[in-house]
Amino acid sequence: MALSICILETDHIRPELVEQYRGYGWMFQQLFAQQPISAEFEVFNVIQGQYPEQGRCFDAYLITGSKYDSFGDEPWLQVLRGYVLARYDAGDKLLGICFGHQLLALLLGGKTERAEQGWGLGVQQYQVLQQRPWMQPRVEALSLLIIHQDQVTQAPANATVLAANAFCPIAAYQIGDQVLCWQGHPELVADYSRAILDIRKEHWGEQVCRQAMVSLEQSHQGALVAEWMMRFVAQDQALLN
């Protein structure tokens, strides 16, 4: 039986990239389709006010990345905060990526803010600090694509930090068997990152973008993180192989 995953899409991608990449929800669907654990997905764009109908249940809820600040005050974001807290209080499993990682930390007692380090772009490598049974295949370090200027600077009190590097000391965390979050973007591909770097070159600066472009020559392990996420969700459902 396939897992059911609700994707709470918290942004729209740039218009010039829609034809090729459609949206963050679609990117996640493409990524998870490659994993050994079967899953079905429904995408709800919360900026447009889309949510599952009342009483609808999923095996997990995934909050995507976004250009918005997790600590912002936009009306749609206030609604999302209430919805996510209700899911947490109900015991539902929650997955957070980038913005979602930051939002969940903020809602559950941690701290998220602008990083003194500035923008993180390209590919970065992280040390895996904790090994868990659902982290299969097992690695000691992994690389992920990133695009962020905000970071979790204090994890919730009941969270366990799973991955870190010098630039981002709280790059992944879990809260029991209910919450799993990553600062990096497993759903992105290098060509998408190259396109964003090219579009925003004037904003980020020539040197920063050049360094990020060079880093994109490295491999990244988004597919591995996606498999871990599905194993995390499935760990109590006898679906692991």
Quaternary structure type: single chain
Distance between the termini: 13 Å
CATH architecture: 3-Layer(aba) Sandwich
Q: Uncertain segments of ≥5 residues (pLDDT<50)?
A: none
- Proportion in β-strands: 25-35%
Query: What is the total domain count?
Result: 1
Give the helix proportion (percent range).
Answer: 25-40%
How are strands sequenced across the largest beta sheet?
A: 2-1-3-4-11-10-9-6-7
Shape: globular
Task: Characterize the structure shown.
With 241 residues, the protein is α/β, with parallel strands linked by helices. The chain has eight helices and eleven strands. The protein has helices at 18-21, 24-32, 75-89, 99-107, 190-199, 201-204, 206-215, 222-234, and strands at residues 3-9, 39-45, 60-63, 94-97, 111-114, 120-128, 141-148, 150-154, 160-164, 172-175, 179-182. The chain has a nine-stranded mixed sheet with strand order 2-1-3-4-11-10-9-6-7, with helices on both faces. It has a two-stranded antiparallel sheet with strand order 5-8. A hairpin with a 3-residue loop joins β10 (172-175) and β11. It is globular and about 50 Å long. The mean pLDDT is 94.
Short recap of the structure:
With 241 residues, this protein is α/β, with parallel strands linked by helices. The chain has 8 helices and 11 strands. The protein has helices at 18-21, 24-32, 75-89, 99-107, 190-199, 201-204, 206-215, 222-234, and strands at 3-9, 39-45, 60-63, 94-97, 111-114, 120-128, 141-148, 150-154, 160-164, 172-175, 179-182.
